[in-house]
Amino acid sequence: MSTTTGSEGQALAGAAAAPGRRIDLGRLAAYAFLILIAIAYIGPLLMLVLTAFKTLPEFTKDATSLPASFSLDNFFEAWDKANFPQYLLNTAIYTVASTVIFVVSAVFLAIAIARRFVRGGGTLFTLFLIALFLPAALIPQFQLILALGLYNNPIGYIMLFLVNPIAIVILVNYMRTIPIELDEAAAIEGCGYLRYVLTIVLPLSSPAIATVAVLHAIGVWNELVLATIYLTSADFYPITRGLIVFNGVYGNNWPVLAAAVLMITLPMAVFFVLAQRWIIGGVTAGAVKG
Amino acid sequence: MAYHFGGGRSRAAPYAFLVPALFLYVLVSLGPSLATAVYSFTDATGLPNQPINWIGLENYREFLTLGAAAQENWATLFRTFIFCVAVTVIQFSLGLLVAVLLNQKLRGTKFFRTLIFLPVILGVTIQGLIWTLFLYPLGGPMDNLLGLFGVQSEFLGGQPMEAFAWVIVVQIWSNLGMTMVIFLAGLATIPNEVYEAARIDGASRWQVFREVTWPLLTPAVNTNLVLTIVGSLQAWQLFLVLTGYRPGTQVMGYLVYATGFGATSGGTSASLRQGYAAAASIVLFAVVLVIGLTVQYLLRRREARLLG
Amino acid sequence: MRKSFVVAAAVAMLVAACGGGATTAPSVAPDATQPGGGAAVSGEVRVLIHQNPPLVTFMEEFNKKFEAANPGVTVDMAVVNAADLTTSVQTRLMANDVDIVIPTLTGFSGQVQPYMKNVLAPAWQQLIDAGLLLDITDQAFVKNYGPVAIVDAVTYMGKVYGVPAGSVVYSGIYYNKDLLAANNVALPTTWAELEAACTTLKAANIPCMTAGGKDGWPVFVGAYGLAGAAFPAQAALVEGLWTGSTKWTDSSMASLFEKYQTYSGEMMEDGASGIAGDAAPGRFASGQVAMFPGGSWYAAAIEAAEPAFEWGYVPFPGSDTAADNKYMFGKYDMVYSVAAKGPNKDGALAWLSAFSDPANYQAFVDAVQFIPTQPGATLNAKIGTEIAPYLENFKIGFEQYWVAPKGAGTFAGGPILNNMFKPFGTFDDPQAAATQAQSDLDAGLQAE
């Protein structure tokens, strides 16, 4: 018997034919509310998009009007001036490397805590929870990286992103919901710990892992301050550093900046759309045996 | 909990595999933070070749009790609580509602999900820019919209309370997507059969939610509560972008940052005071620690009660 | 398990604590450091500046010329956001990874005076005390700069630690020539005339003034002329406030507070509190507002927004006596210093020397439109012509002398350094504001 999850609406709609009126009103209300929220989101986001099509004088004159024409000039300018290809590649490397390494290490940590496979698991979790509360330790961290000889070094930079307490909290809480019977079942099948984690835990936690991966990737992708401090050779710059050419002291070139931002956001947005498949009850069919 | 994957040497496997994450945490996060704590008891400036003196609780005394500046620090602390409560309550409820609605088989859910999550992807600076444009007081979109209802607002340039309220709005708008996504992942763990069983028993939609969905959502609820509470206590970058350092609107996170980089009191060449800034950040940490651990403890107790 | 991470934590702490003193060479591309003085310069010169488009453009061209004149030298210039400049200067100096830095954007301001107790050294001084900035007192190119600028902007304890790149003025007010003429409003030269002008303009439905109120500081900086006209000796004012011989609540201060209130509440246009700092010049250049109090740095933005726009710049008439309104207050701006422990000191000195060469310096002034600190240079832009008549009366502003005592409240600097009055602040009563300012100041003066 397969288990499908998540579509409450399906079950409700399937099971109830009689009070049809009530459900229709409910659905109507749901749509109305969602559309209201959507407007609250489209409105401001539209500003960003419109700005990306304006020229700077247009924008300075009136920031909230419609652009005169929808030319792609700003996008081309952003691509050229901000050295997109190279910096985008750098950003991609930093993001992928740190996210993959981090997620793998985090899964092993989270499952051990969630299942209490290690003594002091609860304390460990509290420790990581505390990490969530910790103040940013910019200068000591800098002194550390400097002392390790990893200043102005991609490895040192990536290291900064291999810790993410938010992810641990999400993963641990989620993994607690994985049925314990699966552990026994796997052990009976002859799984060692490693196989267990890779074949049972990983797929079953995929919604949480996908969520964590997306959030982590976004954090690394958008980081500017740490990149400014730790990467001083232009070869290592991520794209956020490249955008500086559009900042001014008394005014930024918002239209081109907006175009650049839209281009930068695109990969992450695509990543999120793809990841939604896993976040919203993806690969769970056939997991429960017997 | 029972470990089924072998005894003897292989019992060490979980320990061994978690070492990388733990080691990195200690090195990159805990270590520097402990150093910050130590620095908070010194008069360090953050520059090398300078004598560093142990001054005990002097930084804390200054931050918490010295003159009118300390009183303002307390006011900032209080304001941070208000921010936290307002943001958490609204963001949590809205996030839950949206997630539940989007969990039904309505049309266009993927579109709504991506749309609402988009601000999270954009990052703080862009969120701030978007809303600075949107809240432009002289004929901007929100100004026109409110005008339709005969409401006037000075938005972010207005009196502190007003500007503060608008930052709360932007904070919620920006982070709702994250709350929603975590709830969606949690809702995904609830099997259809459970809903069907409840329906067959004749439960109304509200009853289904209260008796079935809500308890089973406990892990996601816990995650979201902790993240939103802690996140809103520490948040400050939106204030940086939307209002700047205005008296009457700052929150603790901003105060800590500004202390570290000298953007606080009058005077143009502020000093580098790593020790003092460290003390300010430890004060914030202490506040978040107490609240965060208390919340976590209460939630775990509730979870144990509900889910056994 | 527990024990091992306590050990690891201790190690991390030790490393972090000791790491600050270590001077480690960064692991970057090899740079050929030069032999001792006298030999030709070679290798890489690393320059760190903040994002300021005309400055960046100038520097890029200047660097090319410098490289062409000195084969064997490459200039590696990094640009950071102005907000991150202090941090970047600090971290890069600590890593001994940079040769030329901008340690301050306000000259060597905020020096601790003998009458100040319980205050800290400003950041640029801390850099000097930590031995991170090179003493260049004996360098030949220092003499290219005016002696007053050298003493006021870049000298500490009798030694010179940088070159002053220029100064700006901030106590003036821009005015729209056409709009004033069209409404028969003469250019105000006294406060009373300014009030009358605003009344006339408002009656004709023309906003009198605008400013970037959302960023806060453009409003009180714009009103600098108010304080300046009342207290031309700004350093003395600071001393008076510190020693208690002057108080914000003095009766001589009362009219100052009233003027700030009128300025904020009645002269500024509705909605100014929502205008972002970088949008304000555009608003003024659109021709809809008659006047725009602000600093000389806005001139370039105004001209870029609307090249054909007719504007002028005069001191903000803060006093009722025209003769008091002839001063321009401002500050020294960027300072360029050599890193004392940088990888290529000789290269850095050669770079700075080339920068200080009168021809190059003039090009710099033309690009960023600073008031020059070299006697031979002139500001050729329109703003230069406008300011020229007042340059003899250039004075450093209150802001550059003021240091707040520890424990002081926000308003210790009074309305000069804060927006106190509505709609930019929360006060409507000048007396209440004065009382608050004094109590905030006293809190600091009396704290131990």
How would you explain this protein's 3D organization?
The complex is a heterotrimer of chains A (290), B (308) and C (448). With 290 residues, chain A is mainly α. Chain A folds into two domains: 2-52; 82-289, Orthogonal Bundle (MetI-like fold), CATH 1.10.3720.10. Helix content of chain A is 69%, strand content 0%. Chain A is built from 15 helices and no strands. Chain A has helices spanning 8-15, 20-52, 56-61, 73-81, 84-114, 121-133, 138-147, 154-159, 165-175, 181-188, 193-204, 206-221, 225-230, 239-242, 254-279. In chain A, helix 2 (20-52) packs antiparallel against helix 15. The longest helix of chain A is centred in the N-terminal third of the chain and has 33 residues, at 20-52. Chain A is globular. Chain A starts with 7 loop residues before the first helix and ends in an 11-residue tail after the last helix. Mean pLDDT of chain A is 82; it is low at 1-6, 9-20 and 282-290. Chain B has 308 residues and is an all-alpha fold. Chain B has 13 helices and no strands. In chain B, helix 2 crosses helix 3 (67-102), helix 3 packs antiparallel against helix 10 (218-234) and helix 4 (109-122) packs across helix 7 (160-187). The longest helix of chain B has 36 residues, at 67-102. Chain B starts with 12 loop residues before the first helix and ends with a helix. In chain C, the strands form five sheets. Chain C has a three-stranded antiparallel β-sheet, sandwiched between helices. Chain C is an alpha+beta fold and 448 residues long. In chain C, helix 2 runs antiparallel to helix 15 and helix 11 (251-267) packs across helix 19. Helix content of chain C is 42%, strand content 12%. Mean pLDDT of chain C is 87; it is low at 1-39. Chain C is built from 19 helices and 13 strands. The interface between A and C is large, with 38 and 45 residues.
